[in-house]
tRNA (adenine(58)-N(1))-methyltransferase TrmI (Longilinea arvoryzae), 298 residues
Amino acid sequence: MTWTLHGTNAQEGDLVQLVGLRHKSFLLSLKAGAVFQTHRGVIKHDDLIGKPWGSQIFSHNGSPFFLLQPALGDVIRELPRSSQILYPKDIGYILVTMGIGPGQHVMEAGTGSGSMTTAFSFAVGKEGHVTSYEIRPDMQTRARRNLEQLGLDDRVTLKLRDIREGFDETGMDAFFLDVQYPHEYIPQVRAALKPGGFFGSIVPTTNQVIRLLTELRLNRFAFIDVVETILRFYKPEPLHFRPVDRMVAHTGYLVFGRPIIEDETQTSPDLLREIGLLGLEERDENSDDSEASPDLEE
């Protein structure tokens, strides 16, 4: 199977998306002679092979569909899973903030069903690689199948281990930690991540954020940010433009940081406070307590 986002016509082996009424969608891999059966009718793969992307097609009983190339978000939403997956709104922000791109070696702990693994392997391209650790054999098996279905398994190494034991790799470009108690594994993460590399994690509750922030500072991580992404869709109707009735609100707190090497002979407390290595409670009486988001600074 081939999942591609280039080309003008559907080819045998392509992963395609069929979108029908009420935005009901199906993902399937085209195979000559095969038949796709759904409660909305039967569609022959041969009728799709060679069709231009964006074409409207019909099942045997007249149900309409559009033939599309699935985006990364479509693929992640449709992944078979036995655990909670990350939402595209969080995944997109993670990829951008952690600078994930072609050629990088990215590490992940907490493979789960492989949604974040899929996004990382897609982003690093054929030149890059993803190493993902998981402690549950059944979850790793699920993730492996999902990656194989998308043709991304050659970019990923899956390892089964309790990460308390540490990691085999060092000097990694980025590390994403998606486990129940991430604050317990920051020393192991620090040992695997290169100085100045990118760290990211997601936790559902505020008390977990607080514990994680404390451990990051103790292990000399700086440039620490905590973010919650809120995404709201609107009805695309010119005469009735307004927010949709429902939305996915809180999905987790994203925590980012970067391990640094501090020169203890020439330490600047003011700079260390600005980059988050020292906390507000450590400010002296003459310090300026004003704060601003980095994006709001002029």
